[in-house]
Amino acid sequence: MSVTIHGTAKSRAVRNIWMAEELGLAYAHDPVDFRDGGSMKPDYLALNDMGQVPAMSDEGVVLTESLAINLYLAKKHGGPLGPRDLIEDALMTKWTLFAATQVEGPGIVCLQHALMLPEDKRDAKLLDETIAKSARAFKHLDRALEKGGGWLVGGRFTAADINVAMCVFYFRGRPDVVASYPHVATWWADVTGRPAYKKAMALRGD
Ligand SMILES: N[C@@H](CCC(=O)N[C@@H](CS)C(=O)NCC(=O)O)C(=O)O
Fold first, then answer.
1. How many Å lie between the centroid of ligand 1 and the Cα of residue 52?
2. For ligand 1, which residues put their CB under 6 angstroms from it?
3. Are the CB atoms for 182 and 139 separated by under 8 Å?
4. For the CA atoms of the chain, what is the radius of gyration?
5. Does residue 163 carry a pLDDT above 90?
6. Which domains does the chain have, with CATH numbers?
7. In which region does residue 182 sit, left (phi positive, over 0), alpha (psi from -120 to 50) or beta (all else)?
8. For residue range 30-76, what is the model confidence (pLDDT) as tens digits?
């Protein structure tokens, strides 16, 4: 067994578990937890000196950054999940950076203020403003999915869909956001209906 995904499924490691399940990899899962200080222990700091999960180890290669790990796994094992040529590679990079820079930040604000914070700490105005600001990114995503026949790259399900979906996941406390964009809504139903997604989510226990 070469690939080990370090990080509880209740973290961004779930992104990599989903990818590993899609690829049918015989991977090991080391559920290091940042919530109990596990990611600050010396053994884990040797993998990621930032003390954040996930990390991936694969035959001596250690990689951090969940979205980069997914691109690595897709390229190494990919078949249809990975890029077929330089242009697809560039597009998968583009969508991964779009996810990280345009979707994840507002998504985390949405997660906190719609779902995670105690109700008396939630800021409804900030939540509304954040959702309004995210419209620009969601419209871009919606148009791309329409043009792409329901997928982001190559007219098929790829690493780009996983990486973007895992950032759209943060809007789950406000399902009306995804529902407002018809092509995003259809795509979201497609990606979250996949057996590998369901298996990864089941590991979270929520
Ligand atoms: N950009 C990193 C973020 C990693 C990250 O922030 N992980 C969280 C869990 S999802 C963590 O370890 N938090 C604990 C901390 O920051 O100390 C990635 O995508 O892998």
1. 5
2. 11-12, 34, 39, 51-54, 65-67
3. no
4. 17
5. yes
6. 3-77 (3.40.30.10), 83-198 (1.20.1050.10)
7. alpha
8. 999 999 999 999 999 999 999 999 999 999 999 999 999 999 999 99
